[in-house]
Amino acid sequence: MSSIGPASTALRLLLAVMALSLMTACASTPPTPKKQVYDPLEPMNRSVYAFNQRLDRYVAAPLARGYVRVTPEFMRDGVTNFFRNARYPGTIVNGAFQGKWSQSGRDTGRFLINSTAGLLGLFDVAQHVGLERNEEDFGKTLAGWGVSEGAHLEIPALGPSNTRDVHDIPVSAVTNLTIYLGGWTVVLPLYVLDAVNTRARLDTAARFRSEAALDEYVFTRGAYRSYRNNVIFEGNPPEVDPFDELEDW
C-alpha cells in the first residue's frame, strides 16, 4: 500500500490552485482599500498578538540575536538569497496567474540563473544581468482578481494578515522548494533557519516598533496594511492612511 507524502499533497494543491486560476478572469485594478482597517475580531486578534509577542520575546528574538553574533554577514546574506530563491517559484506562478507573462518569463530566467550559476541561490547572480527580483504572492493575485482585503487577522506564530492574504500561506508552502528537499528531518531545520534569519533581518524594525508605538497592536496592524497596499499597488497605493486611527491615542 503506497502512502501519500507531503510533496504529493503539495503538488495536488498547486494543480488545484492553477485550475482555479484558469477559470478566473484577471481584474485590471485591485479594489480600493477602505479608509480604516476592518477588525471585527480585534479581541481575539489582540490575544493572539500577545501570544506572538511572548513567543518572539522569549524564543525568536534571542535565537535571532545569537545567530547574528555567531554568523558573519556574508553568510547571512547567502542564507537570505538561498531562501528567497527557494520561494521564487511562487513569484513566477503568481505572475502568471496575474497575466504578467513577460515578467513571469524573466522571473523564470532569474530563478534558473540563480539556481545554477548562483549555487542554488546562495548568490544573486541574476541581478547583475538586469533580472531584478519581483514580489508576487497569492494575496496579491486575489487582489488582482477583485477580492477585497477583508478582515484583519493575527495568525499564531506568523503575525499579521487578513482574510484575503491568509490564502497565500498554503500556496507559498506548495511553491517553496524546501518542502521537496526531503523528509521533515531536513525540511523542519530549514524552515527554522529561514524563520531565525528572517527575524534577524527584522530586528531593527521590531525594536523601533517597541520604542515608538503607544499601542503596538494598532501600529503593527497599520504597518502591515501599509506594506501590503504598497505591494499590491506596486509602489503607487491609493491615498489611504492606515495610521489615521492612531490619532485617537
Portion in helices: 55-70%
For the terminal residues, how far apart are their CA atoms?
A: 62 Å
Globally, the shape reads globular
Q: What low-confidence regions span 5 or more consecutive residues with pLDDT below 50? A: none
User: Domains counted in the coordinates: how many?
Assistant: 1
Sketch the topology as an H/E string, one letter per element: HHHHHEEHHHH
Average residue-wise pLDDT? 87
Measured by DSSP, the beta-strand proportion falls in under 5%
How do the strands of the widest beta sheet line up side by side? 1-2
**Structural class by helix and strand composition:** mainly alpha
Q: Characterize the biggest β-sheet.
A: 2 strands, antiparallel
- Please give the count of helices: 9
Radius of gyration: 19 Å
- Number of separate strands: 2
